[in-house]
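User: Could you go from structure to sequence for me? I need the amino acid at each position, not a summary. Structure tokens:
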């Protein structure tokens, strides 16, 4: 029989995170440190906005770019944050949708993308699927922005540099000094920066600094999934300065033939979400971070995360995969580091769960160590 599966499908594997997430559904009351999904629900006021939108008939396609009111609110928010006067905006089906549209619009086979390692899993697999080349730049052991290594990795084939701060899986938040230094490097070679800012609200030890504030040749991706617990609503956005509006135009064209538009009733809720104060939830997650770090510090080597809701913990001798297998046998679900990295020395914990589960998980992991 003729081979039916396209070659590109063989360039990716099923998500290691999703494999463990699926495993959780089969286990009885596990400590689930696997999935990056807030344990709080969408605030009731925002749920009511979505319900109201459905009842009022916001159930058809929106414009491909998104609802006009939402676009204007995002444009205003981006302008306040980074200083762009007339940013171009596209509402996407989550930041993951924005990443896919970005790579489809910009990458040719053989184009190189510089990615600090560890990294969010989608970058590697979509780039590989499209025939691009991932150039991984080691950020171990402290997970800071490895600017000098990035500078050394630039070539004539470099299409973009990915910046993810706060970072999944490490929780690292890049300093203003690191960001400004990277801007110098990127500007010297006129290289695009893709800034994935989905966790921007989850900064615990200072204010968030967007690289787009200092570098107009940045494509900024943000969204509502993590900050407002709307993971299943699939809402994100892409924004670019006036000089890069052609990228948004190309992404919009591709969206016409793929996602068509982001979910319409939830776009109405997102309008309200942009004015909703989520600081109480962020403060609760700061305490979860502290609870986890305090519990693990005596038994594990751990760089204290400054944001997001992840910790990237060094595994005991023997490697991360073996330790993860042992943890799962003891009802604790964690993700091996090789899902996010070219190394297998660490494991990721998502502390987006209850304080009681954090305490329970810390106790079990500490005994295993």
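Assistant: Here is the amino acid at each position, in order:
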């Amino acid at each position: 029989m003729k081979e039916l599966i396209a070659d590109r499908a063989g360039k990716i594997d099923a998500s290691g995170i999703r494999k463990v997430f699926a495993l959780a559904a089969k286990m009885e009351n596990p400590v689930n440190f696997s999935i990056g999904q807030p344990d709080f629900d969408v605030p009731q006021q925002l749920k009511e906005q979505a319900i109201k939108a459905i009842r009022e008939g916001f159930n058809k396609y929106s414009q491909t770019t998104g609802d006009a009111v939402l676009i204007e609110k995002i444009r205003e928010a981006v302008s306040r944050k980074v200083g762009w006067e007339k940013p171009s905006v596209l509402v996407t089906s989550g930041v993951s949708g924005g990443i896919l549209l970005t790579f489809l619009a910009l990458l040719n086979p053989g184009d190189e993308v510089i990615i600090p390692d560890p990294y969010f899993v989608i970058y590697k697999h979509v780039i590989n699927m499209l025939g691009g080349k991932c150039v991984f730049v080691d950020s171990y052991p402290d997970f800071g922005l490895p600017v000098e290594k990035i500078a050394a990795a630039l070539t004539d084939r470099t299409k973009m540099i990915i910046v993810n701060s706060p970072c999944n899986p490490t929780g690292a938040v890049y300093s203003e000094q690191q960001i400004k230094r990277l801007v110098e490097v990127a500007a010297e070679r006129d290289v695009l920066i893709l800034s994935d800012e989905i966790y921007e609200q989850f900064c615990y030890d200072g204010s968030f600094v967007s690289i787009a504030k200092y570098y107009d040749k940045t494509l900024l991706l943000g969204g509502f999934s993590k900050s407002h617990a709307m993971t299943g609503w699939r809402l994100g956005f892409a924004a670019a300065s006036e000089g890069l509006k052609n990228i948004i135009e190309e992404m919009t064209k591709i969206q016409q033939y793929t996602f068509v538009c982001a979910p319409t009733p939830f776009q109405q809720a997102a309008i309200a979400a942009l004015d909703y104060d989520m600081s109480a939830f962020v403060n609760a997650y700061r305490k979860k971070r502290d609870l986890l770090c305090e519990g693990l510090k005596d038994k594990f080597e751990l760089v204290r995360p400054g944001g997001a809701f992840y910790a990237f913990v060094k595994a005991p001798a023997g490697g991360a995969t073996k330790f993860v297998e042992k943890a799962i046998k003891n009802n604790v679900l964690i993700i091996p580091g090789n899902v996010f990295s070219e190394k297998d020395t660490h494991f990721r914990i998502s502390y987006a769960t209850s304080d009681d589960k954090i305490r329970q998980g810390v106790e079990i992991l500490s005994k295993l160590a």
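One structural detail worth keeping in mind: Residues 237 and 363 are 39 Å apart (CA to CA).
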